[in-house]
Every structure is written in structure tokens, then in C-alpha cells.
Amino acid sequence: MNARDDSKGGTVRAGYVRPLDIRNGRIDMGHGAGGRAAAQLIEEIFLAAFDNPFLRQGNDGASLAIPQGSRLVMATDAHVISPLFFPGGDIGALSVHGTVNDVAMMGATPLWLSASFILEEGFPLADLKRIVQSMAAAAREAGVAVVTGDTKVVEQGKGDGVFISTTGVGVVPHGIDVSGANARPGDVILLSGTVGDHGVAVLSQRESLEFETTIVSDTAALNGLVADMLAVCPAIRTLRDPTRGGLATTLNEIARQSGVGMLLDEAAIPVKPEVDAACELLGLDPLYVANEGKLIAIVPAEHGEAVLAAMRAHPRGADAARIGIVQQDAHHFVQMNTRFGGRRVVDWLSGEQLPRIC
Amino acid sequence: MKYIDEFRDGDVARKIADRLATEARGDRQYSFMEFCGGHTHAISRYGVSELLPTNVRMIHGPGCPVCVLPIGRVDMAIKLALEHDVIVCTYGDTMRVPASDSLSLTKAKARGGDIRMVYSAADALTVARDNPERQVVFFAIGFETTTPPTALAILRAQREGLKNFSVLCCHVLTPSAITHILESPEVRQYGTVPIDGFIGPAHVSIVIGAAPYEHFAEEYRKPVVIAGFEPLDVMQAILMLVRQVNDGRAHVENEFTRAVDRDGNLAAQQKVSEVFELRPSFEWRGLGEVPYSALKIRPAFAEFDAERRFDVGYKPVADNKACECGAILRGVKKPTDCKIFGTVCTPENPVGSCMVSSEGACAAHYAYGRFKDIPVVTA
């Protein structure tokens, strides 16, 4: 530091501002008041991590140039997970992955993100910095820029450390039409990997429930995987990431939206043995446990093998499997042939299986 | 999963299904009641009934702890949370049981009640230790399986001298409920509920042993096969019941030998009798007042009895008129016989208690078996 203490008769460099005390500092109401403290917080924590030309302009919003002839996709997601740090990730990475994936599931290439932070008075600056840096790393890896944002501070007891809301914008190349309403009888249902990892990893850290496990969250951006899949089959009908409510609920959403039924093969659905065991112990069904780095693809039968091969060739889809077919059904039931040899309905999740996992 | 997958093996299931198809006589019907919700759940979740011959029918029994909890008892817990400002701790499914005034513990929580879901009685004790300035009540429900942990929690609270912990005891007893069903007019007089035998409880029997069922087999001439909660356990037990019926036998047989013996867990039984005594009568949802069917806390542990510590008298509350939970719990009706099944009453908005827990007959059928009620057009 060039700055020296005034009292010892030295001089302070013109324009010097004492940096935030990241190690010991905490969020106070002043950081949300819109004055110098707020500006400093933004500069030293947010701008430092997210740095890009849009932010450097210092405007209230970002001016974005849209590629000619493409459609825009926009998606938003709020993140309130507890605990904030969990095996395999944290709320920062999750808030990028969640929104990037929502945009990608529309068949779009995610390009830009906005991020809003609701911070609770007393929240350690060190934790905030760690979260923001994790967000920045996740955004870089996914190839998206955080182009605008906002922070607000709420009094102690009125938040839970930090809530993050992100909005993503992406562009859909010409000729791609991916929607939850597009599934047709005869299509095949593909899943990119094991289910339940995220929910179980988060659950293992809960105060009331701590258990020893090696399971880590699968939180990851899936836009790269989606791009590879669309490259071999632009006719993919539906893409969706089975987050809250798990695989079961997401398939029911698609069945209703498309007006079809589904028939799954339980034996084909990949579940890690550790996840299976943890679910068994806690009385949970892995089909209803959240994922943050998996996707479901519904594909015309004739393209099934090609898309599956493309998924398996990508690191995020190495365990991809064909888990069932779409069928005609006026009641839009998702049914499953059980490993045991019987058949049953796989219903929507009812109530909440786990509190606040994303 | 080692030690579990073996009991979910589809190939073995098909072999048992073949045996059942051969051995179940074509000239008669077989009706067996699985007492426990755990069996109901296994049957639905693994699609066991799909593998049974059409003349073998399973009747779902009342052995789902939250299903038999009467509205008045949930009202007591809600009153404790909202009017007495205590922290109420309870097991997950109990949170959603519908109570009076369109409330449930979940909804009472949204109105400001401090109601917490715990995984064990010991967790409730931890809440009490961590909140010495607040009163903490464990809303204890369940059959003989969950009773020993509650007894241990009370014994530990006494040893530690905890002054802010008490238990709202709603523990009920399996054998008296089975007797009640066998004595009901539908079974005894009218024969409208034909019961040819019982699948006996799994976890309950680990605690109480196989001996308590010998009375039913002898007195009522009904075979009982104690079975584990895995789907192959259930299949094997059904085969054993069919064989007993064919041979004209009525014995207690134990399919679940890997966990159950004749005497049960004597240490657990000792702790339970140290802390609890029989209630002369207790109201069950669906079954009404059943004599000597539940436990209360002994006077020696009165300070840990929430019913003594707080002024929350029990008021019986009638079920919703359209709700058929009572008849369903007695095996008189099927979920689909209820007019509001799947329309007004769904897992999201349960009217009756059978729609709450995944062990409840209605919730299990709604979640897993609905497709059988209506023709499904397949591609």
C-alpha cells in the first residue's frame, strides 16, 4: 500500500479509498443505501469478479446487440438454498447454472445474465466474495456475461444470509423449436445421467440431519451438452432440467403440456448407489429429488440413438440413458414398469419433499 | 444396495407369481388384509398387485399412524403451538393431517406457530436443550415401532432434569386394532368384509414379537403371516397365506425371520412399560373409540406429559361427511368407492387422513395405482 497513516504525519494518496475489510467485515444497512458504501461494495466485490465491457460502461442497464434473424429466449430463477455452501457447489454457482440451464432448455444459446442480490444485514463479506467469485467462475465456464445487477440489504432476521435472483437471455438459432408442448406419441425419452445427487448432497449438510457421504451436487451448466445434442438432431422436441420435484414431476409437467402419456422403465433410470441408499434411509424417492445438472430430452424415435450417442460423448452426459417412451393417453399419466415386474403411476410430487434446496 | 436389492428382485418375484398362479384355487376368492401402511406402500410402489392372480385381493388395513390419528388430537397440537406458544415437534407426515377450521400443522405454522419437523424423538429433545427459555412438546404418534424411542426420550429428559420438554402421547397398539376389526359387525356378522388372513406387521413385530398374534389365529381362525416391508416379503407372505387357507390351517407364521422372533425386543418392551400405561379407551379415526388400544404416560412421569402440563382438553371432532376414511380404514370400502376421491380430496388438499401419508390407502392408490381405474389408451 502506498497509503500511510495520517496521524504519523504521512500523506494519503489523493483519491485513496480504504478497501473493504473482506476478512472481518459484514454487510450493514449502509451497503444497501445507494451511497458510497453501496458503490464500493459493487465495485470491489461485484465488478471485480464479473468484469466485462457492459458493466464497465457503468449504466443502469445493458445495451445488447441481437444477432440478425434469431429469436430471443428469456428465463428467470430465484435462489434461496440453505445451506449456502454444499458439497459440489454453492448458491453462487447454482444461481448461474439454474438460469443458464433454463435458457438452454429452450434450445437457446445463453449469452447474458442479470443478477439481483438480497443481502441480510450482518452477512460476512468473506462469504459474499466467495459466492460472487463462484458465480463469476460459473458464468465464465458457461460462456455468459453478467451484464447488469442490483443489490438490496434487509435487516437482520429478515433474510437468510443471501438470496440471489438471476435472469438469463439467449438466442435461438433459426430452425430450432424446442418446447415442453412438443412431445409426441412414439418419441423416446432420454436422461443425461444419474438422478437425485443434488438434493441428497444438500440434505446431507442439514443441521438436523448431517450424515457422512461422498455425494456431491451435480450442479453444472448444460448449454454445452445441449449444443452438441442440437448439432446432431435439430429436431429435438423437448428439453428440460429436472430440478425441484425431480424427474417424476418434470415428466408430468411435460406430459400435461404436450397432452400425452409416458411409459418409463425403472431399471433404465440411472441412480448412484450412494444416493439410492441415502434415499432409502430417509424415506425419499430418488425420482422426486432435485437435480441441478441433468436434462431430459424428448426426441423422435428415429433420432434417439444419435442423440444418445452425442450425450454420452459429452462429459455432462456420460451416463445418459433411454428411460422410456411417449405414448398416447388422454389422462396424461406417467407410468412406469417397475424393476420388480409390476406397473405403477409416477405421480406429481405432492407437498414438499425437502425444504429449500435451490 | 446390498441386503435390500435381494428383496426387490424381479426374477424371484415372477417365480413366486407363477407359484401363486398355480396354487391359488380357481374356484374361490382370497381376501387378505395387510395391516400396515408400510405394506400398503410396498404393494403400490412396486406394483405387487399386478403380479397377483385376479382372485387374490388385498384389503388395506388401518396400520398407517397418521391415518388413524383423530382430528381432535391434531387440534390439541395446533392449540399448543398457537395458544400456548410452545415449540411443537413432530414427524413429517403429521404436519399435513387435516384438522378443524381448515387447519393442519403446516397451516398453523404459516400462521406463526413454531412447529418443527423432526426425524426422531431424540431430535425433539435436542430442540428442548437448545431452547431452554421455551416449552417444547413432542407430538408423539405411531404404533409400537415409534413408542420405544419416545420412552427413551422421556427417560433421558428425566435424567437430565429438563424442565421444558413434554410429550403429547398418541401412541397406539396394533393387536387391539386387529381385534377391533375382527370384532366389527362387517367382519363378524354380515361378512361384508371377507378376511381370510392377515399379513402381520414388520417393524411393529420386531418390537412386540410374533406371540401377540397367536390369539387371532387361534380365537378367530385367521392365519397371520408376519412379513417384511420389501415387495418380495409381501409376495412370499401372500403365498404362505394362500397355502394356509388351502390347507385349512390358521397359524402365525413368520416370513420376516431375519428380524422378528417370537418374543420381540424385550429391552424395548421394558422401557415402554416403565414409562407408559394403557389408556382405558382411545379414539381412532375410522374405528371410533377402541378399548385399551393406546398408551398414556405413567403418573411417575407426569411432568413430561403435555396433557397434564398444558390445559388442552381433548374434544372429539367428526370427520367431513363425504369422507369415507372410516370405512376405508376398516376395509369396508375401497378408495375409489369414495365420492370425493381424486376430485375434492387429493394429496395436495387432503380431506381425509388416508390421503395424507403415502402409506394411506387413498394416497397410495392415487399416487401409484390410479391408472387401473380408467382405461388408458396406449400407442
Characterization of the model:
The complex is a heterodimer of chains A (358) and B (379). Chain A is an alpha+beta fold and 358 residues long. Chain A has two domains: 29-61 and 69-172, 60s Ribosomal Protein L30, Chain: A, CATH 3.30.1330; 188-345, PurM-like C-terminal domain (Phosphoribosyl-aminoimidazole Synthetase, Chain A, domain 2), CATH 3.90.650.10. Chain A is built from nine helices and 13 strands. Chain A has helices at residues 36-50, 53-56, 91-104, 125-142, 197-203, 223-232, 246-258, 273-282, 304-313, and strands spanning 71-79, 85-86, 89-90, 109-120, 145-154, 162-172, 188-191, 238-240, 261-265, 296-299, 321-327, 334-337, 343-345. In chain A, strand 4, helix 4 (125-142) and strand 5 form a beta-alpha-beta unit. In chain A, helix 1 packs parallel to helix 4, helix 3 runs parallel beside helix 4 (125-142) and helix 6 (223-232) runs antiparallel to helix 9 (304-313). Chain A starts with 35 loop residues before the first helix and ends in a 13-residue tail after the last strand. The model of chain A has no long low-confidence stretch (mean pLDDT 92). By secondary structure, chain B is of the alpha/beta class. Chain B folds into three domains: 5-62 and 178-254, Rossmann fold (3-Layer(aba) Sandwich); 71-173 and 264-309, Rossmann fold (3-Layer(aba) Sandwich), CATH 3.40.50.11740; 325-368, no CATH class. Chain B is 36% helix and 17% strand. Chain B has 15 helices and eleven strands. In chain B, helix 1 (10-23) runs parallel beside helix 11 (231-247) and helix 5 (121-130) packs parallel to helix 6. Chain B is globular and about 65 Å long. The two termini of chain B are 35 Å apart. In chain B, 52% of the residues are buried. The mean pLDDT of chain B is 92. At the A-B interface, helix 8, strand 11 and strand 13 of A face helix 1 and helix 15 of B.
